[in-house]
Amino acid sequence: MIKKILIANRGEIACRVIRTARKMGIKTVAVYSDADREALHVREADEAVHIGPAPSSQSYIVIDRILDAVRTSGADAVHPGYGFLSENAVFAAALEKAGVIFIGPPVGAIEAMGDKITSKKIAAEAGVSTVPGHMGLIADADEAVRISSQIGYPVMIKASAGGGGKGMRIAWNDTEAREGFQSSKNEAKSSFGDDRIFIEKFVTQPRHIEIQILGDRHGTVLYLGERECSIQRRNQKVIEEAPSPFLDEATRRAMGEQAVALSKAEGYHSAGTVEFIVDGERNFYFLEMNTRLQVEHPVTELITGIDLVEQMIRVASGEALQFGQHDVTLNGWAIESRLYAEDPYRNFLPSIGRLTRYRPPAEGETADGCVLRNDTGVTEGGEISMYYDPMVAKLCAWAPDRLSAIDTMSQALDDFEVEGIGHNLPFLSAVMQHDRFRSGRITTAFIAEEFPDGFRGVAPDTAAERVLAAVATLVNQVLQERAVQISGTLGHRRRTVSKAWVVRFDETELAVTIEAGAEGTAIRFADGTVLSTAGAYVPGASHARFVIGGEPVGVKIDLIGSAIRLRWRGMEVKAHVRSPQVAALARIMPRKLPPDTSKLLLCPMPGVITAIAVAVGETVEAGQPLATVEAMKMENILRAERRGVVKRVAVEAGTSLAVDEVVLEFE
Known about the structure:
By secondary structure, the chain is an alpha+beta fold. Helices cover 27% and strands 34% of the residues.
């Protein structure tokens, strides 16, 4: 058995591997860059080795630095996690030459399957259904346009060595094909050190469903069910679940058997994933094979009870799998929500900064028999860097059925507190409540179709407004009581209260009466509706749990001046709770107008300006590229919203900018 594992990765996946290794009694070695010196994976490992500067191109993906760390630590095995060097055949071969165990598949399989072009050819030869496309490499943008036109738009432009949504663009016309080719090439070079590009037909209304496979060195290969990964934005998975709400048993078996056949053809061992696009008629097409552990592997572990990292370690040690295909059963339903450091209100652009608050919900079994799991690589006070992927954590929920898993996830998201950075918790909560998601009628176009203008938060309906008004009234009541209490009597509260208030949310007002007595507290509305309430708010607390009208409600609470900010289920409101007299006066107060930034191009995210496409005095048209900013390994093109003339260029290529810093000024 392996005695010491060096983890050639960082963040949550490094912590994930450490957890299983510790359970198996195996020592672990972390590697870290300058930016990760105080990172959680460094603290959790038994040893840690510094490997270089913050950029991954100078640390985590430099093979010689990892090999030096292996020699320094005396590790006899390396787990690559996902990303970085996980599908790098040169790295796996170098470890093999050095006599170090690579906890992953054989070099030949990485070479064949890790390259998307080669893998598609092999899959076609093996009789696996594949998406139409051009499997040769694309030399330049002109060739990309020509091939795209031949295939027929829309097309997907993809990095051959890509993964995780990096180096991928959908093009619907010649202009987008030309721009997409260059952006994909740049991202591929930055992320993988390999800028080869290919093009394939983009299947409309598709579902992204993948099969988890697991093989040993003795010829056994099994499939462990599927994962539905259709909730994506910019080709990056956001929410995954297992099993898929779309597949029937016959399709599941057919996909699984094809995945196993492909794996056996390559002599595959270890964990891997065969990804498919599935259309509305359940026709499936091979996309690629990921010769590594997937980000979303926890949902498979939750429904099968199989620890994939443990099995990878045992297979790498030469052990045979101790179970067969008939032993693999799918129990219940699991959902994973990826918590990203990105601002959903700014089109999901990356966000960096310090986690001034990071308080995930408690892991383990819930009161109603469901399960929560949170794979993370950060702690409160840690910093989210611009150098790496923006994923902060993976929150997972298991329940006996799909709707129960969704509801468990919803409550967990309500309880998850993150401050200091922009993050997508409100968006994740909104998806959990979306009728189309809850019904399972999803495709990879879900976000684009349901949020065509981006995410602006969830507007509360009448029922939600009343719940939030009840919470605001309860919070206000506690604050009012505390304000009038005499020192030495804190904690003593009057139990008989009947007081009228007016709760205002932006343009909406609700007249309420709080009625508190020996039997509890209720909120009465002007139309006679009464909501019973239970639970308590502690002054200064950032989160509180209530039961409103018989339903559990977990709300994030902030006091901002005289307002009470409430965040719940993707909704965010600022509530002013006033007496009827004060509310009447507030209605006639003037409103402060926001500043006019219509003549400025502001940087929408923290990042580095890599290109300025215009000059002073130039007339630009709507949609024209103005500048390119790179953040968290993603390249983003900033475009003109309307016609105008450039008055001033405030920055140059290579400039690092914070959010809302000026890039250009227009006349």
